[in-house]
Task: structure prediction
Amino acid sequence: MSNTKHFVAPVEDTPLRATDSLRTDQAPLSLWADAWRKLRRRPMFIISSLMILFLLFVAFFPGVFTGVDPNNNCQLSNSEAGPTAGHPFGFTLQGCDVYARVIHGTQASLSVGVLSVLCVLVIGVTLGALAGYYGGWLDAVLARLGDIFFALPLVLGALVITQLPLFRENKSVWTVVFVISMLAWPQMARITRGAVIEVRNADFVTAARSLGVSRFGALVRHVLPNALAPVIVLATLELGVFIVAEATLSFLGIGLPTSVMSWGNDISAANASIRTNPSILLYPAGALSITVLSFIMLGDAVRDALDPKSRQR
Amino acid sequence: MSTVKIEETPVQDRPILEIKDLAITFTTGAGEFKAVKNAHLSIMPGETVAIVGESGSGKSTTALAAIGLLPGNGRVTGGQILLDGEDIAHASEKRMIELRGSHIGMVPQDPMSNLNPVWKIGYQVRETLKANGRPDGPDDVARVLAEAGLPDARRRARQYPHEFSGGMRQRALIAIGLSCAPKLLIADEPTSALDVTVQRRILDHLDKMTTELGTSVLLITHDLGLAAERADKVVVMYQGNVVEAGPSLDLLRDPQHPYTRRLVESAPSLASRRIQSAKEQGIEAGDLLAPAATGRGRDDVLQVRNLRKVYKLRQGLGQSTDFAAVDDVSFSVKRGTTTAIVGESGSGKSTVAKMVLQLESPTEGQIIFDGVDTAGLKGKELFTFRRRVQPIFQDPYGSLDPMYNIYRTIEEPLRIHKIGDAASREKKVRELLDQVALPQGTMQRYPNELSGGQRQRVAIARALALDPEVIICDEAVSALDVLVQAQVLNLLTELQSELGLTYLFITHDLAVVRQIADHVCVMEKGKLVETGTTDDVFDAPQQDYTRALLNAIPGASLLLPPAVA
Result:
């Protein structure tokens, strides 16, 4: 039996590598390069980013897609009329071209989404990072402050804020952005805080500190960049959510002024003709769904690509 | 000792477990990967066989295949696994469930994560008994736990895992693994997460239990010394292949395969003297005794006096008790030498390191660096101090910023201390990479592309960037494979003789101390129990605790030919 036999494998079967040799046959990979390599092979990412690029193009150059002036061409004689040549989606109750309104509404919806996300990022990441990194009383104060805003439901909070005299008089894209950012930053702050707390005790932060990097410097140089992945994921997901929020507020009449064309306003206006001609509601709602879906798909794809568990060691 | 166990149990003809030409393939996103290529081993009834190998050698995969618990993307693509004559390589899940527990038991690696934190220990033991149709009353549970060496088992069974220490958890896991008296127990690194003295007690007890039950043991370990001490036979695996197998002492004394030879040479637990740099090896012994010539031991670069660190432990509302993590510790470190602080977890050794690095402030006592008390250092002085004292941390996966490429990582200290311009900094980074024997192509890489040993060398290069005088190594080699560990220790020794560095080496591993340190401080529960030169402490330990630590080094008592030792 092999019990006492001393087996030795032939050396050529398992040639010895130099201990700890370095792979040099691959291009260097940073976190972002690695994520990009994974992303560009994902159909979900490709489709959603093409969609978003297209939407951005529509938002910046609506004139390319429609020559019809959406506001000044409304004739009541066309009220709720079906599609005709040059007006593929038909007309609203007021006799305005639905297609032109959907195209021109893209800009308001997208700018509310993008601007709100930027504001939320600035407020949320700053406060969350400071709270998570320094902890102590600062953390307690900021956490309670966030809780106050967190406890306000969006619609209720928006109602209150928009009825303040300052906002009642000057409704614009900016007031909606302000309302959304005021009510949405705590979630971003919480995510950032969690990510920062996870990173702040990492050895590489201690190492940087003992190299002489200041405490704040370590936060900016080492902690934040490493805590950013979940923040970016949340930001892409929230973009979709904020576009919906704008539509919700506009639908309720506390969002964009009716003079600004937006999908939310159109959905709200279409409410009146939902029984007689539901297609008027369908087109702006469809555009909204596709946009939100694109951003959420993008967020999902980015989250998968940045997932630390799928990173090679 | 278990090395004579073959004679104690009747040797039957048929092995309890026989693995023949086993091949295991993993399907990953990057394609097929053969984790195990040509594994074979056999375990006779009552015998202990150890598989030794570095991480990624396929040793755990082989064992998991034997119990049918390969991860979802892995499958057996060739060969046989014969359990008591029955081929179970492709057995149905139903059959495997019958076999697990009653025929094959398992003690997993990490006692901290392998007990379910929401269930009481007793419940988790009962679960195993029940699944295998054994009596599962409270008495049976208590008996099983008591057999695994848990005192007061009845009460312990009602506790949750978090109320147990690491050693007790591992005993509970052993209790679960052996509760149904399996014929074969697979122990996957059963003690690598535990302190050495605990490790020794656990392994002794495991030996005793398996001998009583006549259970065969398949022990998986990275530690050749431990394998040789505990097992009758050792199987060495390398890159998915079995490269050598044989009776443990034969294999250790007369390794045939070049890989085994390398492993035996680097195993720290088997080495018995300090690594010497190439330069020192060339110097006559007489010259070494004249420290002035080399600058070694000229003065005390670091003095620690009556150091104390007290933490307040919160106990409910507004109450707190004082806990002295470090209690009245004094030692001094001579320039150009290596002083090791040894202790088990909770001995306060890392807290000392943090205080020396000025990352924690001492409650009492002084740390004097180059004649200056560091307590008063602020702003600019502290900045300069940081330049002269640098750390190397334990976890090479955690100590490098994953967002920085290697060039930026090593350049950062230079940039922060405003040394040189871009061109001269790049030159310096190249020099540093040369010093730690990494190719210059490494500069553009990111930490996740490097292995543990390479990362640790990058960390060393970063620590050297500011030409420090003292380097604090906090468990700097504990996370590395044996061969890589030997390589890094050699590198540190070479650098010391080249640059006249002083090391303060914090470790739990006495075997490593023997290889690198000139002086040793042994710590226990925050107190310094023994100090002395390495030779004195190893040859004539004064304290019981030190003796216990020394005896617990696996393989220390094995007799080796002088050529290897």
